Amino acid sequence: MSTELNKPRGILKNKGNVPSTSTERQTPDPREVAVKHAHIIHSRRQVEDQIADSIIELSKFPATRDSSYNAPNPAPADAETFKNQVRLYQPSDYDDLIEERNANGLCGYTLCPNPRSRVTGGGTFKILNYGRKDFNIVPSRELEKWCSQVCAKRAMYVKVQLNETAAWERAGVASIHIELYEETRSTASDAITQLQKDMENMKIEALEKSAQNAQSLALERGDAIENGKASKRSMKLTIREKPVKTPTAPSLDLDDQAHLVMEGYKTTFDPKSEAANQNEQKTSARDETRE
């Protein structure tokens, strides 16, 4: 009995006595994890294959080759297809599309049906706009990607709208839209036109307000109003010259006591007190002589 009392007891509970709970974390099935990752990789591969097929398709654009359509005014179906497919591109995918079009002899801008230009003469670089403010030295390879510099601007305007994020991360985002160079310019021109109209309306409103103010002022003066305008009335004005007095020089007032005046103040002098002071001075001088 004494040995059982002296035997140390553990402070930890026996696991066999702990009741099992439903919230206990279970080890995930490795097969399910592998299948899930396989689906993710498969979906990413599908997006990449979709972009590759799109590059092949857009390398032969525009699909509608008609004289009424050109790069600044493409066919609506071609423009819509191009914007829907290029929205998931990365900048590197867009560069691949330009190279694929150049390999087919076409301009790098997808909606341009013209062939790409060829730089005459040898040399790796080409001088552009010599003697002008926009003088530049450009690699010949860059110039041969496009049919003109305007198409290069159109292509680069699309490229700067692309994102570096992976395509499968943006596949489900419906808010990604691509705008063309001409669409933005037309929108800007419409905004400028609307601004001009608003400014004209403001000028008209200012003129109307000025006319109303002039009419109100005429009513306050008592002018007659005819057909919404104040009638002119004649007034007799008499102009008179203001009389001017000829200035006169100040007179000098000679005074024998002028030396007593200092800054406008004249000192007073008492002859009796002055005589008394003189007598005192004489008396004091005699006393000093006797001593």
From TrEMBL:
An example of a Pfam family matching this protein is RPAP2_Rtr1
Cell inner membrane is among the record's keywords: no
Gene Ontology cellular-component terms listed: cytoplasm; nucleus
- Coiled-coil spans are 178-217
Cross-referenced InterPro entries: Rtr1/RPAP2 (IPR039693), Rtr1/RPAP2_dom (IPR007308), Rtr1/RPAP2_sf (IPR038534)
RTR1-type domain: which residues? 84-171
Q: What is its EC number?
A: 3.1.3.16
Q: Which transformation does this protein catalyse, written as a reaction?
A: O-phospho-L-seryl-[protein] + H2O = L-seryl-[protein] + phosphate; O-phospho-L-threonyl-[protein] + H2O = L-threonyl-[protein] + phosphate
Keyword Coiled coil part of the UniProt annotation: yes
Q: Where in the cell is it found?
A: Nucleus
Question: Which GO-annotated molecular functions does the record name?
Answer: RNA polymerase core enzyme binding; RNA polymerase II CTD heptapeptide repeat phosphatase activity; zinc ion binding
Q: What does this protein do?
A: Putative RNA polymerase II subunit B1 C-terminal domain (CTD) phosphatase involved in RNA polymerase II transcription regulation.
Q: Which protein family is it in?
A: Belongs to the RPAP2 family.
PANTHER family, per the entry: RNA POLYMERASE II SUBUNIT B1 CTD PHOSPHATASE RPAP2-RELATED (PTHR14732)
Write the protein's name.
Answer: RNA polymerase II subunit B1 CTD phosphatase RPAP2 homolog
Q: What is the organism field in this record? A: Xylaria bambusicola
